[in-house]
Amino acid sequence: MQEFLPPRRLLLGPGPSLVHPRVLRAMATPLLGHLDPAFLTVMTDIQTLLREIFHTNNRFTIALSGTGSAGMEAAIVNVVEPGDAVVVGVNGVFGTRLATVVERCGGKAIRVEAPWGRIIETAAIEAALSRSGPVKAVALVHAETSTGARQPLDAVGALCRTHNALFIVDAVTSLAGIPVEVDAWGIDVCYSGTQKCLSCPPGLAPVTVSERALETITRRRTPCQSWYLDFSLIAAYWEEGSRAYHHTAPISMVYALREALRLVEEEGLPARFARHRLNSAALVAGLAALGFTLLPPAGRQLPMLTCVTVPSHIDDAVVRAQLLQAYGIEIGGGLGPLKGKVWRIGLMGESSTEANVLTLLNALEEIGI
Ligand code: PLP
């Protein structure tokens, strides 16, 4: 076999996004042992930077080994014991997956559904909480990557407290692209992924957990069903002063995340959010001129993931293949019921530039959309 040299690609799909050369360089630096004091400082740096991006003071703020789905599994498996009820917002692939994970943990998923592309209304969550018996948690997806819908979260935390439920949020696509206000919104468990707006390769799941959630986890009647994802065991590795072996950290990924977080910090969150908004507005204007309409209604659209309905005269698979083969541009197709019907165009992290917007729009024009 020959060395694998990947073709050049402009990653404008739902993730992974483009990665800054500094992050790639960090991944190629020599390994340290995962308990080496020098490596432990890297972990501490990551915790400090993640707290800033999550807007939280949570002590338990870590980068879990595994992709965004590991973050999702960890959030659910630590909180949910067999028989527990969880209200889950289901309006796309990732809400559906959350409900499945709840059920695999032996919990009862109370699905609050909305059509794909729409948000889950706070009133519907409140109604579900009021008519159900005790509910252990409410779980919502902030940025539903399968539809481009932006879920409002700010009123849900207070509702959860009134009903003595924990608030779990999927911020896989939203973190570092739009504000994620963990403490201000009363989020108890928030998880993300590295390959979206953080512009790092996939492989780690940033997670933050409130003291309230940690107390609930400590009071579990049964041990966490997963040994690998058990927060009480993982805490011993990430806790400063403890740092006891649990599993071997993916060292190179941890280096990469530290560098990606440094890049976020250098840019500053307000500037980063503004860049995502600006480039998304340019893309939306260009797509509108080409005859596309957005799936989510106005005011509910994500800046990092634009989901447009593909007009019936366009062959979805043919055009996406042309974009990839002739222009080296990746965009995403629809999932589940939206397969063949929508495109999902990501402008996440490093991928969110004016030049990339123009490159894509020019390619679509040349193809003759
Ligand atoms: N949640 C959301 C909203 C996502 O977009 C994704 C991935 O696209 C996931 C969870 C799962 O993350 P991963 O594919 O990194 O396991």
UniProtKB/TrEMBL annotation:
The modification N6-(pyridoxal phosphate)lysine is found at K196. Keywords: Aminotransferase, Pyridoxal phosphate, Transferase. Residues 34-334 form the Aminotransferase class V domain. InterPro entries: Aminotrans_V_dom, PyrdxlP-dep_Trfase, PyrdxlP-dep_Trfase_major, PyrdxlP-dep_Trfase_small, SP_NH2Trfase/AEP_transaminase. One of its GO terms (molecular function) is alanine-glyoxylate transaminase activity. Its EC number is 2.-.-.-. GO terms for biological process: glycine biosynthetic process, by transamination of glyoxylate. It is an enzyme of class 2 (transferase). Belongs to the class-V pyridoxal-phosphate-dependent aminotransferase family. This is Purine catabolism protein PucG.
